[in-house]
Fold:
Amino acid sequence: MIVTINGKRRRLDVAPMRRLLDVLREDCGLTGTKEGCGEGECGACTVLMDGVAVDSCLVPAAHAEGRAVVTIEGAAAAKRSARALQHAFVEHGGAQCGICTPGMIMAALPLKARSSRDQIKTALAGNLCRCTGYIAIFQSVEAALSPARKGARARRR
Amino acid sequence: MGRAVGTSVRRMDGDDKVTGAAKYVDDLSFPDMLFGATIRSTISCGEIVNTHIGLPPEFVVADHRDIPGANHVALIDPDQPCLAEGPIRHYAEPVLLVAHADRRALFGVEARIRFDYRERTPNYDPERSDTCFKQIAIDKGDLARGFGDADTVIEGEYRTGHQEQLYIEPNGVIAVPGDGQITVYGSLQCPYYVHKALVVVTGLAPARVRVVQAETGGGFGGKEEYPSMLACHAAILAIKSGRPVKMIYDRVEDLLATTKRHPSVVRHRTGVTRDGRMTAMDIDVVMDGGGYATLSAVVLSRGVIHAAGPYRCDHLRIRGRAMMTNTPPNGAFRGFGAPQTQFAIEAHIDRMAGALGLDPLRLREINALRPGDTTATGQTLGKDASALPVLREAVKRSGYKQKRRAWQGTNRGIGLSLFFHGSGFTGAGEVKLASKASLELTATGARILVASTEIGQGTRTMLAQIVADAMALPYSSIEVHAADTDAVPDSGPTVASRTCMIVGKLLERCARDLRRKLGKLTPAEYFTRHGAVVVTAQYEPPPGQVWDDQRYAGDAYGSYAWGCNVVELEVDPVTFEITPTHVTAVAEIGRAIHPVMAEGQIQGGTAQGIGYALLEEVVMRDGRMANAQLTNYIIPTPMDAPLIDVAMIERPYAHGPFGAKGVGEMPIDGPAPAVVNALRHCGFDVRAIPATPERLMAGKLKVEELAVESFS
Structure:
């Protein structure tokens, strides 16, 4: 099948029902996408497919045919907000053990600038984190999407 | 000095984690690698009499006869086999191992292996068990006299269920065989625990065994002892096949087979005067250890020591038992026994307050431990005993008094909990561990050599901050070596809220020592003249710290951190759904080395505690977890997480690095009782968690009934 992964067109010879997650990790060596549950609950395997966040453990490889897939490795090249998100997750304590972090950042990537706390929560609703209690993750996303209120807003809440 | 400590420097592992570059164990690969799987028992009690294996020869199969050394997982008691030889004590007990070059060939492999069993009647009730793993007795003062001084006696029974650690990265290891040696890479908290277990199972000399921690996606205690078992399995397959073997659990296997928090039953009988002074406490603690002893003895120990809560009482008796049941073994989980027993005392305090007609806040103020008071084990507290300061700060920040009045009789509730948590190993534990930490001079600064692991909590960053300031070097000049048993000394396990206070202090000593050696020279100058130099420090107890393990009396911990939670929630009067809306978490932790990370520990632990209180229910059916998937074992999601307002108070501990005590575990001690106490404020009598809507329905009482039923 032909699929664009992180901006590069690739021809892959894979069984159609293999999980996109395995194809990315095993065939493409993109191990930044993580597996936490294998049943679409934890979101650690979140990637963008044609700009939409999906759980790659639930996507059969054939479904990615002809589409553009972006993983954490290609996030910075694909979208301007990615670097800001990555920086903010380190700065504001959004990343602790880091296993959910790639998925969180990919899920946050489609968010528009100055998204509200509710919009952020909704975007991240399918992603689990066991370390942070989520508050630092919300603050990280807010800081990245609303650089102006970075200092004042993100510190206390 | 103090340029790094107390500031939120950029965390060392941050950039790799946000770009996907960080390598967790499943991201590693070795040439010729096989994938391994575990075949487990499907009964809870009995023995295997026959095994039928229908696998083609390209599968590597191993059983207990393939173990070169001794067949047990070395921890405290040698009771747990690495692979069952016949007798089965619990569901999902490992029996056989299989490996194959194609990971997909292992899917469904268990269906091609069948065991014939002779079944016995299992026991799932710890109170009816005839096997006790550990008993502990604490006595202080004269109980009869204490009850004699009381105006009334109030009793209660409190129950907590299993809780799964639910690190997002499941357990996993890779074993790589060499010429008469073995190396294991894994997701783990305690490299030297795994090392010790591998030496026993492989029969190799310690120098032939190497354990390297891979980046670890969360632990919370769930990767304290379990990786020893898993590493041994992978090593057995690797030795048999002569090839590297990767074993990664999927979520279902991780939930079914690995350790959880011990369920508990705690009974209180408390003598109290009319004006609210506790004169006698009689406490009985039962913990369900599961099928093998694992760490139950020490979980029980921390549980009973914290069972009286942060309160003074001259006359008390605490009895604790950890019992065997035919369920998968329970083990380490953040808090380690203290969340269970402090749930009980804190729920009991609110019931007593109701019975006495006092506000629960007042009852806590009257009895809270103050500097100079003695704990249940007779430890005299220092100036940093902060029960009252955290209580007062939490009450002020949350507007507790005003909300308590305003919400009376509504479906909104507010409740509080007061708690403490000992930092470091219990009793003489740190002396026995005799941990070592080393610091190596580099051309540009220094490199930290410890086996203490980064599991998300910020070990690398926090230790580097301490070393930087103690050496008067910039934070950026300090490196941290990988936790690799071939390269680092045994600084002890990464558990028990000990890494900052104990290992951080060892490194502070190393750093001051190295700084003295340097004199007026820069690291580069010294390095050029003298080459690399390594300094090592070994643990020594603070002067005067004494523990009597026979009487269970004395200084149980070097120091305690103190916490107060105020939980605000709403109950849906039709569905009984509970929505926690706001949590105030005040913590006194000595010194926050890295404020953002310390706050992260408090927020994360608080959220886990909210899950423990409301959502997380391990449904055991016939000794087996019936909801072993994330679809129906529910942890808090971004939509469930309440706002958590964290405030940190710093009262330096003289023997901690820059005054720091432990912070990792304490935050999970408080949320559950604060939730239950807020529910009581709404008129619900809940004495067992999780407080699911079903439990709430059963516990609905009128407020006036609450006062009456509390007397017995």
Remarks:
- Chain B touches chain A through 56 residues (CB under 8 Å).
- Residues 14-22+435-538 of chain B form a domain with the Aldehyde Oxidoreductase; domain 4 fold (CATH 3.30.365.10).
- Chain B has three domains: 14-22+435-538, 31-122+166-257, 264-427+552-710.
- The first helix of chain B runs from residue 14 to 19.
